[in-house]
Amino acid sequence: MTLKIHVDMEKCQHYGQCVFDAPTVFRLNEDDKLEYESTADDSERDNIQLAIDICPMQAIKFVE
Ligand code: SF4
User: Fold this and answer.
1) Does the Cβ of 52 fall within 6 Å of ligand 1?
2) Does residue 1 have a pLDDT over 90?
3) Is the CB of 5 under 6 A from ligand 1?
């Protein structure tokens, strides 16, 4: 199963906490701006959920 992920870039402050929890999905680019994969394997679900929970801006969500 493939997970779909959305980050509200209006809310994201590019702190990068999500990067620590799910580095295969989230990364900071050379300008320290968040980039992310909009899809991920189901095996990443727990890591992405941690990122959702830790994001101080509540900017990350799963897309149903
Ligand atoms: S933790 Fe939230 S605010 Fe920080 S970079 Fe990730 S999505 Fe953006």
Assistant:
1) no
2) no
3) no
**Rounded to the nearest 10 degrees, how much is the dihedral formed by the CA atoms of 48, 51, 52, 53?**
120
Q: Rounded to a whole number, what is the distance in angstroms from the first to the last CA of the chain?
A: 12
Cβ distance 40 to 25 under 8 Å? yes
Fold (CATH) for 2-57:
Alpha-Beta Plaits (3.30.70)
CB 40 near ligand 1, within 6 Å? no
**pLDDT recorded at residue 64:** 85
How far is the centre of ligand 1, averaged over its atoms, from the C-alpha of 1 (Å)?
Answer: 24
Show the tokens assigned to 25.
């999905």
Q: What global pTM score does this model have?
A: 0.94
> Residue 40 is encoded by which pair of tokens?
């991920």
Residue-range domain boundaries for the chain: 2-57
